[in-house]
Amino acid sequence: MFKNIIKHSFRSFSRQKGYTFINIMGLSIGIACSLLISIYVIFELSYDSFNEKGERIYRVILDGKIGGQEMTGSYTASPAGPTMTEEFPEIEDFTRLNTGGETVIKIKEKHFTIQNYAEADSSFFKIFSIPLIKGNLNTVLDGPHKVALSESTSKKIFGDADPMEKMIKIGNDSALYKVSGIYKDIPGNSHFEADLISSFISNPRSRGDWLSNSFNTYLLLKPGANYKDVEAKIPQLIAKYVGPLLQQFLGITLEDFLSKGNKYSMFLQPLKDIHLQPEIQQDTKPANNPKYLYIFGSIALLIIIIAAINFMNLSTAQAAKRAKEVGIKKVSGSSKGLLIKQFISESILVSFLSLIVALLIVYLILPYFNKLLEVSLQLNLFDNWYTIPALLGVIITVGLLSGSYPAFYLSAFKPVSVLKGSVKDSMKNGKLRSFLVILQFSISIILIIGTTIMYSQINYMQNKDLGFDKEQLLVIRRAEVLGNKVKSFKQEILDINEVQKVTASTALPAHNNNNNGHLVEGRRDETLLLETNWVDYDYLETLGMEMALGRFFERDHPSDVDACVINETAVRHYNFDPPLETRFLGGNNINDVEPIPVIGVVKDFHFYSLQSPITPYIFIFKNENMNWGFITAKISTERMQSTIKKIEDVWKNFTGNEPMQYFFLDNAFDNLYKEESRNSKLAITFTILAIFIASLGLLGLTSFTIEQRTKEIGIRKAMGASTWTIFYLISKEIIMLVLIATLIAWPAIYFIAKNWLQNYQYRINLGAGYFLAGVLIAILIAVSTISFKTIKAARVNPASCLRYE
Question: b/e per residue, 171-198, with b = 16+ CB within 10 A?
C-alpha cells in the first residue's frame, strides 16, 4: 500500500508541476534559513561547554561603586585567587588570566605578529580543558619566563621544528622566555582567545595589592561545593584585606567608605554564563546579548511558519482542482481513511524533498555564512544522536500541519456534490486562505519593520557626532618601544607632507581607557572615579575635540605640565562649581599628594560605544619623552598607503626594525558595534528570504485565484472592463489582507522594538515613519508579486476566457 501511495503522490506532483515547485522551493528555503539560524544559536549557547570541569568553574567579578560611578567587571586583584583558595575550603584550585591582545614575538632577527597574547598561572591547563600536546601539566607555567604556544602559533613560528626549550622574546620585554609547552588551539566557542600563554608570575603586577584590580580570576570549586557558600564569605575577606588598605591610602575605614553610598564587593559568575552576560565588563571576547538569540530563534520559527503557511495555503487552494479526483476515487470505492493517508503522505513527501534541497542549500552557503559572522560553524548531521531525529520530527510536523486540513477537508466531500460542481463553487470564498495570508503578512511586516529599526539604530550609532573626529587617524600601538624618543619621532613624521598632526597618549576612544580613583582638594573623604588618560599638548587638536571652558595643555604655559583637563560630565556629576577652581590631588596616598589644578573643561565625547553613557573623564599631562601606549597621526586621504609606508620607515629607523603595529581609529570604533552590525546583516538577509518565501506563496495563490475567476474576467472584459479595472479587482483583496495584517503587526513590533532599544543609552526615536514604511513595503511587495499574473490575465482575449474549461 505504501508503494501505491508514493506512486500516486508522484503522479499528483507531475500534474501540478508549478505548484509542487513553489511548495518545495518555499519550504526548502524556509528550512535552510531556520537550520542556519539554529546552528548559529546552538553555537552561541555552546560557549565553554568543552570544559570537562565547566560546572565547577567560576569567574570572580568585582562589583563596585565609587563616587556614584558603578562598575561591574571581571577585573580583580592578583591576591584574590591565591587568598580565596587558601582560606575557603570549598575551593580546589584557582588560575589568573591576563589578556594582552596583539603582540610581537622575536627570535633573533625574525619578528612575528601574534593576535592574542595572554598570561596565566600553571594551573590554567588543569582547570580548563585545553589539552597539552607537549609539556608537563604541573610545571608548564610554574616559573618566570616560561611560555606555552598554541599548535598553530608553533607552526607559524617554528614550522615543523620542535619548539620545546627554544628561547623567544615577547613584546617589549627584554627577557628571554623558554617554550615549555604546546597546547591544542583553543576552540572558537571559548570566551577567551590565546595564541600563546606566558607564566603570569613573569608580570611584576602579579604581585600587586588588593586595590589594583586588573586581572581575570577563575576558581575551581570542589565537587559538591555550592558557590553561594563562597560568596557569603567574601565580605569578611574584603574587610580583612581591603579595609586596612583603604585606611592606609585614603584615611577612611571600610565602614565609612560603604556608608557614603560606595560599594566594594565581589561575586562568582558561572563559566557557562560568561558569554551571554554583556552587562559584565570584560577584556576577553565580547559577550553576546542573549536578546539576539531570542530574536534569531524567533525569526527561525517565523520563517518556518511562513513556509508552512505557503504549503497549507497552496494545498488548500488546490483542493478545488482535486475535488473531482476525490469524487471519482470515492465512487471507485476509496475509503476516507485511505484518502487522508494519500494527502498527508503527499505533504510529508514534499517536506522530505524540501529537507534534502535545504541541506544542499546549507552546505553550499555555509562558507559565506561563516564569513559574514566571522565564525566556523559546521553542519554535522551525525555528531549528535538527536540531529537526524530532530530534522525528521520537524519535517513530519510540518507535513502533518500543512497537509492535515486539505486531507480531512477533501476526504469529507460527498461524491454526488463533487460531481455536480457544488463543492468547487463553495470553496471560492477561501476564508482559511485569507486568514493564512493575513498571518503570513503580519509576520512579514514585523520582520520588515524590525529589521528597518535595527538597521537605523546601527547606522545612527556609526554616524552620530561622537564629540571628536575619528576619520583619518592612524594609531600606532606599542609606542613605548620608542622609549625617550617619542618627541623626536613625532617631529620626524610631521615632516611627511601627508601627516597633518601627531599626538601621544596612554588611551584613545574605544581603546585602553582606565577607570581610576582620584582625590580632590577639600573633599578628601571622597574617592572620585574618572576615566584617566595621560596625554601631550597635541591630543585635543589631533582628535578634533572642542573646549567648553578654559584651555587645553599649551606649550606657552609651562605650569600646564602639572595641570589637568576634565569633561563636562565630570563637572555635572561631581558638582565641580566653579570647575576651574577645582584642584585634584596628584597621588593616591593621603600623605603624599600634590594639588593639580583644572585648567579646562572639554566638551563631552564618546569614548565607549553608544550603549554606554558618557562618564567623568580626566586628561593629565605627561612628558613627551616618557613611555606611551599610542602614537596617533592625522593623515591625508591622498596616497594613504605610501604615507603609511613612509611612517613605517621612520618607525623602523627609530626602533631598530621593530614591526609597526597600527590600526585606524574609525575601524576600531566601528568594531564596538561589530555584534550589532553582524546581527543587523543577519536580520536583513533572513527578512529578505522570508519575504521571498511569502511572495512565492502569494504568486501561487494568485495563479489559483486567476484560474478560479477566469470566466468572470472574460465576462467583465466582454462588458468593457479595462485592464486596470481587472487588476484593481484582484489586487484590492490582497491589499485589504495586508492592511488587516498591519493592524496585527504594529502593536507586536512596537513592543518588541521598544524593548530592544532599551539596550542602548543613545538610540533612535520610534517614529511613525518606520511603521508606515513597513506597510508600504509590504503592499509594494504584494502588488509587485501579483502584478505579472494579474495583468497577463486581464489582457487575455475574452473569448479565450469564456471557452475556459
Answer: beeeeebebbbbbeebeebbbbbbbbbb
Maximum CA extent, the chain: 107
CB atoms within 10 A of CB 167: 13
Containing 632, the helix (H) or strand (E) segment is strand 630-635
Q: How high is the pLDDT of residue 478?
A: 83
Residue with grid cell 601621544, as numbered in its chain:
504
Q: How many alpha carbons lie under 13 Å from residue 121 in its C-beta half-sphere? A: 19
- CB 486 within 8 Å of CB 625: yes
SS3 content of the chain, % helix, strand, coil (to 5): 55, 20, 30
| Residue 694 and residue 441 in contact, taking contact as beta carbons nearer than 8 Å | yes
Q: What cell does 599 get?
A: 585648567
Maximum average pLDDT range among 298-302, 375-379, 577-581, 621-625: 577-581
Q: Identify the pLDDT of residue 348.
A: 83
What average pLDDT does this structure show over 168-187? 90
- The per-residue pLDDT for range 81-100, each reduced to its tens digit, is 999 999 999 999 999 999 88
Q: Is the separation of the CB atoms in 322 and 413 below 8 Å? A: no
Cell of 151: 599548535
- Check: pTM over 0.85? Answer yes or no: no
C-alpha cell at 616: 567623568
Give the C-alpha separation, 294 to 273, whole Å: 16
The position carrying cell 580570576 is 217
In angstroms, what CA-CA distances link 133 with 151, 238, 345, 605?
A: 8, 40, 53, 48
Mean pLDDT for 194-201 is 94
Alpha-carbon distances of 287 from 122, 189, 279, 291, rounded to whole Å = 26, 11, 8, 12
Summarised one tens digit per residue, pLDDT across range 291-304 is: 888 888 888 888 88
pLDDT digits (tens, 9 = 90+) for 218-239: 999 999 999 999 999 999 999 9
Could you tell me where the beta strands, DSSP code E, fall in 495-629?
Answer: 499-505, 514-520, 528-535, 547-550, 564-567, 583-585, 595-602, 617-621
What's the grid cell of residue 395?
519535517
More confident residue, 429 or 461: 461
Q: How many CB atoms lie within 10 A of CB 248?
A: 13
Contact between residue 179 and residue 149 where contact means Cβ atoms under 8 Å apart: yes
Neighbours of 256 (CB within 10 A): 14
Residues 6+ away with beta carbon under 8 Å from 474:
632, 633, 634, 635, 644, 647, 662, 664
Q: Where are the beta strands (DSSP E) in 189-324?
A: 196-199, 213-221, 263-270
Average pLDDT in the chain: 83
The pLDDT, as a whole number, for residue 191 is 93
